[in-house]
Each structure stands twice: as C-alpha cells, then as structure tokens.
Design brief:
Layout (H helix, E strand, L loop, with lengths): L1 E5 L5 H10 L3 E5 L12 H4 L2 E5 L15 E3 L6 H4 L8 E3 L6 H16 L2 H7 L18 E5 L3 H12 L3 E5 L12 E3 L4 H7 L2 E4 L13 H6 L5 E4 L8 H10 L4 E4 L19 E3 L10 H20 L20
Length: 326
C-alpha cells in the first residue's frame, strides 16, 4: 500500500478529488485527526510516497521511500538548504500567492505615498492636522527586484496605475510588456538612484541575503520608499533602521523582517515611517488563495500519476522554481 499524507485541512470536495486522482494510494489527513507525523506506524512511514504540506525537516528521515513533497509555501529555502535527499521531487507554491501578496504590496505603497498611516496614527487623538505633501504613483519610477509571480503581479498593478517599471530578475527571458526596462545586476546602483519605489519580492538564497544593505540604501532618493514582501533577510535590518531614523529614505513597508517574528522591543516598531505587517500578505487569508492552492495540489497530483513534470518544481541548486515546464 502506498500512502499520501496531507498536512493541511481539506474540504470534502478536495478530499474526494484527490483520492480519485491518487488511485492506489491511501490518503491520510493528519491535520484532521488521522494521526500525526511523529506517531505514524513504521508500516506507514516506510510506504509513504507523497507528502502534501510542509513537514518538519527533522522528521523526513522517517520516510525512506518518499518520492515527492508538495510544499504549501512559495519559499523552499529551508528544504533546499537542509538534509532532504535530493532525489525527492520538491515542488513549491510559486504561482499561488502572486495575487494576494502583490495586492498587499500595492496597498502598502499607496498608504506610504499618501501618508495614510500617519493619519490613522493620529486618529485616536482626534487630531485634524494635515501631514504635508504626498506623492503620486502616476509617473513615478518603480524598481522591482525579483520578477517572479509576486514581483510580476506587483509590476503589472503598478504599471496600470501609471508607474514606469524597471525590473531586475535572474533569468534572461524576454522583457514583459508591463516592464519598461529590464536591468542587469551591474545597473542596479543607477536604478536605485532613479527609483521612487524599490520593491523586493526575492526568495531567500545565498545570493539574495543582504541584497539591500547600507550602500544600496544610501543610493536611494531621500523621498523614496522601500517595500519588502519576499524574505526579510534580503534587507540589512540595522542599515534600514539607520536609514529610516536618519531620513536617508522616506519610508518602508515590510511584510517580512529579519529577525522574524520581529521582537516587541525592536526599534523598527517605533519608527513613524515604517509600516509593518506580520508576514500576512500570503497565507490563506484571502479565499481565492486557498482555491489556487487546492488547484495546484490537484494539478500536480495528476501530473505525478501520469509521470509528467510537476508545476513549480524546485531546483535544489538555485533554490528557485525550475524554468522548465512540463
């Protein structure tokens, strides 16, 4: 008997469809009381072929015949950097979160540019006081770092609002129509100096850690803002605090931080020009995201059973989704 383990709550329709697709597999729903990874019988663990969910790394050695893990997160860095046997197919949820995360980034951008956070902060005091000039998205220059699903979604939405889009991405694929200029790594400094908004949607890899540091922040316009909804490690946190405190840049919208969770006594919390949300731009807070996720799980289950290339298959070497498609 082959086993598939599902580590998230699944509605009856999804369960029926998954069990129909995975003919010959016994499907166990561990989030719904059908056992736990820690307490599974060895007869099950030794015959588990598929895990849908994000299993703790330290438990994976209990599954010697595992063939495929379908992560429910877009980021796969913990698994590509861990001790997971690289013969295991690893697919992530890239493509699922672009809608919700990019909308969150747009909201942060507008809030900071229009100083809505400042007006909200003074509302409990009943202050009818203007906070000075604001900026327009229309005609602004937006630099998007990371043009995957999330970065592309943000770029498209900002382009629709009238922004000029510059973008840096790892691959050398053709420039999308919603991007005005693709830049190379050696052009980053000049792009930072031009940008009104710098938006990060980078995964966590050795190459992206500390991508924006003290030097890069110093190159930005004093009235520019930075948005990060990729990984907190992409920005040097201490350098960002200093830039915000010193007025080197105008503001920051952060859905991710380093460290994370951000300690209650961290200076970022106290900065008027910092907007922080607790890594909530993704997840399943929006019902459409949950549906996208279930669709991806089912689509990849069908591909697996047919021996086809999985969607959002992760390249262990780069930590990114493979560009090859099945």
């Amino acid at each position: 008997m082959n086993y598939t383990l599902v580590l998230f709550e699944a509605d009856p329709d999804f369960r029926h469809n998954l069990e129909t697709v995975l003919e010959g597999h016994q499907v166990l729903y561990l989030a719904e009381g059908e056992g736990s990874l820690e307490s599974l019988d060895p007869g099950i663990t030794s015959n588990t072929k598929i895990i849908l969910g994000n299993p703790p790394l330290h438990l994976l050695s209990s599954f010697p015949n595992l063939i495929w893990i379908q992560l429910q997160s877009a980021g796969a860095d913990a698994y590509t950097r861990g001790d997971l046997d690289r013969s295991v197919l690893l697919s992530c949820a890239t493509g699922v979160y672009g809608h919700t995360v990019s909308e969150h980034m747009v909201a942060m951008t507008l809030l900071l540019q229009k100083k809505l956070h400042l007006y909200r902060d003074q509302q409990p005091q009943g202050l009818w006081t203007d906070r000075g000039s604001v900026k327009s998205i229309d005609g602004s220059v937006v630099l998007v770092l990371g043009l995957g699903d999330i970065g592309s979604g943000y770029a498209r939405r900002m382009k629709a609002l009238g922004a000029q889009i510059m973008a840096l991405r790892r691959s050398s694929r053709e420039k999308p129509e919603y991007v005005d200029q693709l830049i190379r790594a050696e052009e980053l400094e000049g792009a930072l100096a031009r940008a009104d908004v710098v938006a990060l949607a980078l995964p966590q890899t050795d190459e992206t850690r500390g991508f924006i540091g003290r030097k890069e922040l110093s190159l930005m316009k004093q009235e520019a803002i930075i948005i990060n909804a990729g990984r907190g490690s992409a920005i040097d946190t201490q350098a960002l605090v200093e830039a915000l405190q010193g007025g080197t840049i105008a503001g920051a919208g952060l859905d991710v931080t380093d460290p994370e969770p951000l300690p209650a006594d961290h200076p970022l919390w106290k900065l008027e020009n910092a907007l922080i949300t607790p890594h909530v731009s993704g997840g399943r807070f929006m019902k459409e995201t949950g549906q996208y996720m279930m669709d991806l799980n089912l689509s990849n289950a069908r591909r697996y059973m047919k021996g086809q290339t999985l969607e959002s298959l992760v390249d262990y070497e780069t930590g990114y989704r493979s560009l090859s498609r099945g």
